[in-house]
Protein: TRAP transporter large permease subunit
Organism: Ramlibacter alkalitolerans
Amino acid sequence: MTSSSRLASWPEGGAGPRVGRALGAVLDHLEEWLIASLIAVATLVVFVAVLHRYGTSSAIDSAKWLEEHGLALAAAPLRRVFAWLAARDLSWAQELCIYMFIWMAKFGAAYGVRTGIHIGVDVLVTRMDPARARKVILFGLLSGAFFTGMIANFGVHFTAGVWDSGSRSNDLEAPMWIVYMAIPLGSALMCFRFLQAAWAFWTTGTLAHHDAAHVQGVEPEAPPPPLQADAPAHGAAGKGAVLSVLVLLLPFALLAMGMLAKYGVFHAGGGLRTTVVFGLLVSLMLTGMPISIALGLTVLSFMFLLSDISLDSVAMKLFTGIENFEIMAIPFFILAGNFLTHGGVARRMIAFATSMVGHWHGGLGLSAVVACALFAAVSGSSPATVVAIGSVLLPAMVAQGYPKRFGAGVVTTSGALGILIPPSIAMVLYSVSTNTSVGKLFMAGVVPGAMLATMLGVTTWYRAWRNGYPRMERAAWATRARAARDSFWGVMLIVIVLGGIYSGLFTPTEAAAVSAVYAFWIAVFVYKDLRLSEVPRVLLASANISAMLLYIITNAVLFSFLMTSEQIPQAMAAWMVDRGLGAVSFLLVVNVMLLLAGNVMEPSSIILIMAPILFPVAVQLGVDPIHFGVLMTVNMEVGLCHPPVGLNLYVASGIAHMGITELTIAVWPWLLTMLVFLGLVTYVPEISLALPRLLGM
């Protein structure tokens, strides 16, 4: 497994450069092998633990039943199976899985720097001229190196203290210093990768480029070329002179303000401290540096300048931030979605949807809505849904005589169902950020997901009927039955995840691990659309995406810790209550804030930053936590479908070969439908809460 891009190259000739290239190649392969192996082994460990638990209980229950019915002879082998399984203690599996993912997150984050996968807000940078953009990009890379170098230093001291204490883990009884070594080693490697990227950009003007479509595991067939320093996306010579200066000076101005407050030049009250926190975070993000780095630098700067909190606590938070078994559902769902995307499941779901609704007005458009809803229920990712369904249906719609804009608009917006219909990675992130039940959130997304799919379908049908778009012949019942049979194995994943969680058979994380193994099995051995030789590539892509999200989560936990210590959410809630703002006004403000944030950030970052701040306010004003989670998710759906950073737009743009401006115009009818739906979800909580209450959750 090799990366498609290299950050720097050695000059030809000489023993030194040859040795350097050899060592670099070894490091590259070691990095890739490590993170791909960790996600594979962790998935297998949890899956085996689930089988062990239910195998043990099933063996003894079956043996007792046989004995009660006079079949003691047949029960004897089952009792021996039970005794053998019971003697195997797998209580350590959950702890081992957490530790493996912590190592994967730290080393995968370094790999993410090499491949350019880390998410940043580059809206301003891409509008500067080449020379000024170059300075801002270098500032972001060097800031990343500074932050990760600091964390490596903290990690060394922290790990040394753990070594001296001799502490061991609870279940594995492994020395904890080995586990904590992930912090200094992973951070040091990440620092090296940032420096490597900065050197390559300084000398060659080239950065490892990561297309927005990759963010949740989507791999377009023709990735865009690397970002060139002499050709920013929108910048022109002489453009952005004042902007670039402001972008670079603003963080330093805020740091200087904090420094003056630290040495008593003026008093830093609560309002000023809050201004410094948010001002520094926003100003750092606007430089285009990875959001995870902006979060971490904000926390470190504030702790050093305006807080008495020990910096040693940073190292602990970097570890405990993802020491949560619920978080492990994210990599598993990403892995399952990747297997399904590459495994032919989408094609069979499209065939089933087309056989059912293809004969209506705009049949292929309606098929796209239905297929997106079905695939959303097994993938948890909106970009993955767009590429899986759109890559098949968009060319077919154009061939049938549909306008390209119509097809692109349908697929772009219907793909957003991927984060609303469970399982949803966005809901897992909200759960992690607010300590809310993942199972309740999943169930709360079922009715809104079905409702939005219906509204998008009605919009599609109306526009097709009004414009006289083609219809297909009604499929015979035999054809429908064959299509249903072919898609059966993919649809069964919905039953495994939701049925397993609601029935109590699995925790959400266990359900995610089982779904990953199941998706691998049907993609490789049932549908046979994915070769075994391609599995390492899927593992690496999944580990890369997972590590990026886990690294954001780690630093978001740091930021949330800072918010809590400064009591900023509580102050916001008190301010709103004192001014008589109730839940209705608050939810309106939240919608506006989230829609504006969606203009410059992608969903995972918005949820991880905004949820810990807004959630306590919502609870104090009487908003149900589950309802608030669905509301945030729907806002994220809208953000995925509008510029400048809507991921679905970029994915659909690559598939449809349309410019972002043209595609933005194309999605407006469906985007307006989504905004109407957002209003309904916001002020009719029962849409989200009816099913969980009916099920007694």
Notes: Residues 222 and 293 are 29 Å apart (CA to CA). Residues 1-13, 211-237 have pLDDT under 50 and may be disordered. The radius of gyration is 26 Å. The beta strands are 206-207, 227-228.
